[in-house]
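Quick check before the chapter quiz. The format below is the same one you will see on the exam, so make sure you can read both the input and the output lines.
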Amino acid sequence: MKLFKSSILAILALAASATFTSCSDDNNIVDAPDTGVYIMSQGNTINLPSEGNEVVLTVARHAATDPNSVAVTFTDASGIFSGASIVEFNGDELTTTYTVSFDEAQIVEDTEYNVEIKLDPAQASHYGVTDYTVKFIRLSPWKSLGKVKYYDDIIGSIFKAGPIEYDVELLENEKTPGKYRLVNPYGKAYPFNEPGDYDDSKDYYFEIDASDPDRVIFGMTHTGMDWGNGEIVFTSRAQYLIDNGYDPEAVYQAGWYGKLKDGVITFPTKGIIAGMG
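Here is the expected output.
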C-alpha cells in the first residue's frame, strides 16, 4: 500500500452481450482490378529536415493507365504548410512525387503540425492510403549532460511526500545553451511512484529556460503522473503571470523568477503553481 495517496473507488464493470449474424451466400464479393492512385505512407509522424523547407512524398498507382492527373485536397490549419492541388504522372510511370512546402521561419521546434492530404475519391485506390493525415514536427537538438540531483518540493507540498532528492537525467539544448530538460522526473525515478502511477508510454520533459541565470522560467509542464486525482501539472508563477498580461520586468522586480547560481537552479517559495486533473 502506498502512503500519501487518495483512496481509489471501486468501479463496477457492466457486461454487454453481442449478437453476431452470418453473411448470406448471396452477397458474394468479387475482386476487381485496382488502377487507382495512393500515397506511400511514411508513418503518422514525419520529422522535418533540420535545414530546408520541403518534404517529398511518394504517390503511386497500380497500373499505368489514365488519368495522369489526380486532384488533391490539402488541408493545414496552421497556414504554414502548402501542397499542390494536383499530382501528375508522366507517361507510364507508376510512381511520382508530391512536395509539401513550409515556411521555415514560422516553424516552432518540438511543435506538432497536423496536415491532411486527400486524393480525389473517384481516382483513388480502393486499398492504398488515399486520405493521409500526418503530423509534421522539427525536433530540437538536445545533448545529455548525465545525471543530476533533483530536489522536489512540488509533490511534497501537495501530498506531504517529501521534500526529497534523487537522480534525474538532464539534457541541454545544443542551439540554446542554458535551456534544459529533465527527463521523466516524475516517472520511474520518483521514489514514491509505483507501476501504474505514471504514464510510461512516452517521455515527459520538465523544460526549464535558464539562458538568463537571473530570470529562470518554465511553462506548463505535464508530468504523466496521476495518484488518483488526475495528472499533476505545474508551471512557474513567473510564466503564469506573464501569460496573463503582467509585464516581465514587474514580475522580475517582484522576485518570481528562478535563479541559476553555482550550477544550482532554485525557485522562490510559492514560485511554482501546481494542479491536478
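If your answer matched, good. Residues 1-30 have pLDDT under 50 and may be disordered.
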